[in-house]
C-alpha cells in the first residue's frame, strides 16, 4: 500500500494501490441487559473482547461507490445502500467532505447473524479502509465517533482488544489489564438469529418471570481478567441474552453441552446468538475441542481462536 501524503495545499491525496483491512469478530464476556429506553434500545453494560476470526475488506479507487463480496453469506447478504459497509463509507464521506468513491470487496468469514458482530466489524473495516484510501487521516477516536451512528458494536471494532461498553454499547472504554492470551472455540450454528427478536424474547421472558436474574456488576469479570487464570474467568462469564436465544433455538443447549463434555471450561451463547463460544485452558485444548464439536453434529462448524485482538487494521 502507498501511504497517503499531504501536498502543499494540505488536501489529502489517495494512495495509488488497494487498501486491505482485516477486522475481527467480537464476543461479549459479560452482557448485562437493562430496561428498555425511550429511544427503543436497552441499556447495556458489556465487556467486549475481539477474537481472531476475521473478515477482510479491500478498497480500491473507483468512479462510484460499489461493493462486491465472496465467502460466508455470498448471495445472501444484500450489497446495496442498506449494507453497513456502504453506509459506513457514506458516513465517512459526510464527515470529511470527501467524495464517496471506492470499489470495495469483502471476503467474509465471520458468520452472518451469528452474534459475533460480523456486520458491525465490516462497517468498522470500511471506515478504516476508506480513511486510508481517501487520505482523510482521521484518528481512531474520530473514526469511532463516526462509527456511533452506524451501530452499537461498531466503535468497539474500530478499537479492538478488550473494552467496557455502556449506553447501548457504543460508549467504549479500554479495560486496562496485563496482556494475556485467552483460548476460545467458536461454534457456528446453521442459520442465524435476529438480534431485535432475541431482545423481544428476553423482554417477554422477564415479563413472565421466566428469565434468570439479570447479571450484576462487571467487577467480578474485570477481576477475573486481572488474575489471568482461565478457570477463574470461566466462572465470571455471563450473558443475559442467553436465555432468550435458547428459548428461540433450544438446539443450542446441545451445542453448549457438547463443548463442555469435550473439555471446555465453560460455554455460552455469543451475544444474541446463535453462535456459541467456549473457553479453554490452552491452544491445544481449543483445537481438540473444536474437532470434537465438529464431530458431534451439534453445530455447522467450529474453530479455535485467540483473543484479544486489535480492531480493524490495514493489513
From TrEMBL:
Pathway: Isoprenoid biosynthesis; isopentenyl diphosphate biosynthesis via DXP pathway; isopentenyl diphosphate from 1-deoxy-D-xylulose 5-phosphate: step 3/6. ATP binds at residues 111-121. Keywords: ATP-binding, Isoprene biosynthesis, Kinase, Nucleotide-binding, Transferase. The keyword Ribonucleoprotein does not apply. Residues 83-161 form the GHMP kinase N-terminal domain. One of its GO terms (molecular function) is kinase activity. The active site is at 26, 153. Its EC number is 2.7.1.148. Residues 221-297 form the GHMP kinase C-terminal domain. It catalyses: 4-CDP-2-C-methyl-D-erythritol + ATP = 4-CDP-2-C-methyl-D-erythritol 2-phosphate + ADP + H(+). It is an enzyme of class 2 (transferase). Catalyzes the phosphorylation of the position 2 hydroxy group of 4-diphosphocytidyl-2C-methyl-D-erythritol. Belongs to the GHMP kinase family. IspE subfamily. This is 4-diphosphocytidyl-2-C-methyl-D-erythritol kinase. It comes from Pilimelia columellifera subsp. columellifera.
